[in-house]
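Researcher: I'm preparing a figure for a lab meeting and need a structural model of a single chain. I don't have an experimental structure, so a prediction will have to do for now. The sequence is pasted below. Please return the structure as tokens so I can convert it later.
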Amino acid sequence: MQQLPQSVPAAYSPLIEQMKFYSEPNISCSRFFGMACFTGDSIAEYRSTGSIAALAFSGLGSYIAQHLQGGLFLDIPCGRFAFRDQQEDFDLIPLVARLGAARYWEVDIDTDTLKDRLPRATDIISNGTYQKIHATDSIGIRHECGLPIATMQDDLLGFLTKFSDEDSQPKTIYISALQPDAGFCTTAEHQYIAVQYLTAVYDELARICKAGDLVIVNAGTMLIAGIDEMKFPAIHPALALAARNFTLARRCAFNKVQVFRKEQ
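Model: Understood. Here is the structure written out token by token.
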């Protein structure tokens, strides 16, 4: 697989070390992604038969497939499918295979979440220090649904900063069910840390995405939960990405799934 040659900028390490996200393994946004990308009748047939070919694209799904075809799908944070509601939620891998990805990377910071796929997973923030400044190592490789899948452990910001901006392969970056910890955001100091962290994430997305690449946010309101939008109005992903040359290209009927396309 492609190496991740970049190192994390020194200014980012304190943000990674201090930032706190809410971890809730029983919450998944995959149901919204599935319903946004495929028609209701085809989802029912897929659940009944298990046939990926039964899945028929919605307008949003067709748009993603057009841009993702033959490219990389990055799922971060990926979570653990075993904790999800099997009647409502989806394993994303078959869905992404149907959308035409050539490769699938799944990344999460949580050791317990990854232990079934990455036995050597360990705490990446130890004694208050971020341990993966120079590398995302301990990579698990497997194949499912015809896709080569790489499993890695890292922080969202830390992982994005390691991506080379020379990478030209089509990519879709899927950020799902990620929200700042409510208790962490109760103080102005911590809200400012959260804002700095998310600002850095947006900057890195703009750096690594080329024209036509997609960023899918599911859901945007979760990503800024606990942050005072009156004080920090530009922190919402729709505004922040628009300011970085992304266009809101598609969104689902419930506005849970938003697809942003990088322009020139």
